Amino acid sequence: MAEIQTIESMQPAGKRVIVRVDFNVPLKDGVVTDDTRIRAALPTINYLLQAGAKVILMSHLGRPKGEGYEEAYSLAPVAKYLATMVDAPVVFATDTVGEDAQAKIAAMEPGQIVLLENLRFDKREKKNNEEFCKELAALADEYVNDAFGAAHRAHASTAGIAAFLPAYAGFLMSKEVNTLTGMLDEPKRPFVAILGGSKVSDKIKVIDALISKCDTLIIGGGMCFTFLMAQGKAVGTSLKEEDWVERAGEMLKKAEAAGVSLLLPVDVVCADKFAEDAATKITSVDEIPEDMMGLDVGPETAKIYAEAIAGAKTVFWNGPMGVFEMAAFEAGTKEVALAVAANKEADTIIGGGDSVAAVNKFDLADQMTFISTGGGASMELVQGEQLPGVVALQK
């Protein structure tokens, strides 16, 4: 991958620096309920403030229609929250590139912050419209992208604007790209990859990419049943993708040919329905009742997976082992999370999405080496895709 310029090579003093952050945070009754993404952007924001920059922040929030202001998706509550986390004045602009934004930016002093209103209130943002890119660029002297979670989108604020301003990667963006590409290019071995989630079709490119990189590939979640079918097993009413059974079989052969140990469940927690109060039983994968569904890996499987994780020097984990949101089916995911946390010798990388939610649920986040903020972006990077937001920063 070509080099990307980072903010450490900037001279931002006195300049207007427009920073794409990922403030797409959950709100309830106008209050931020999870500030993980805001905290992740603070090193970049604070660095620029201390360097004497005028810091202009821009982000999307949710999925507005793109036809103007929608109160439910306003970033105003985020501006109020951010003001409690930084030692600088935070001014909120009620539009993105309009009169209010222009006036508030014109009045800025070094060491101050202006947060623009939701980028996606303007439909031109997602279309990467050149005119909108120019209007955003006109607000600033330099551009920083620190929104790795949106780096797989070719939008005006994540890609297009970089054509019109000197462009740099923030600390979060740099760390995400360097950690994930470093893991793939030069992992400490043994390298154990853990993949869960519901569908093989969603993860097939990631599985393909990791088979050529890792030493052990652990499969859990709903997609394991398609692999078990490829081994000729009956899986009852478990989630399965009949169209992908043949492809799953090919993956098993590919792993064997590559000398990769691909681990599948040996037992599962079965239920008579998809519900917290379902009747459950633990069965071997050879004896799944035809009227029941597997909703978690079983205790014997969790033990085998934990042993494989314990011997690793690099661990990459994306996707839960079962329906961990329900207490009856959380044990497999919890055991894997505990095993990853317990391995202090390994670089442990959590690849966004539900895995992050699981690590947080079991209060283990501070015991992981690195937690990616970008589910879709981290998966696309792992499977070898070019991320538009990263390509735009390459010089």
* Average of per-residue pLDDT values: 95
- Large-scale geometry: elongated
Helix content: 25-40%
Structural class: alpha/beta
N-to-C SSE series? EEEHEHEHEHEEHEHEHHEEEEHEHEHEHH
Low-pLDDT residue spans: none
Oligomer: single chain
- Count of separate DSSP helical elements: 13
Total beta strand runs: 17
Overall radius of gyration: 23 Å
Could you explain how this protein is built, in words?
With 395 residues, the chain is α/β, with parallel strands linked by helices. The chain has helices at 36-50, 76-83, 99-106, 130-137, 171-185, 200-211, 224-230, 245-258, 299-310, 331-342, 354-361, 375-382, 388-391; strands spanning 16-20, 27-28, 31-32, 54-58, 90-92, 113-115, 142-145, 167-169, 191-195, 216-219, 261-263, 267-271, 280-284, 293-297, 314-318, 347-350, 370-371. Strands 5-6-4-1-7-8 form a six-stranded parallel sheet, sandwiched between helices. Strands 11-10-9-15-16-17 form a six-stranded parallel sheet, sandwiched between helices. β15, α10 (331-342) and β16 form a beta-alpha-beta unit. α6 (200-211) runs parallel beside α8 and α7 (224-230) crosses α8 (245-258). The model has no long low-confidence stretch (mean pLDDT 95).
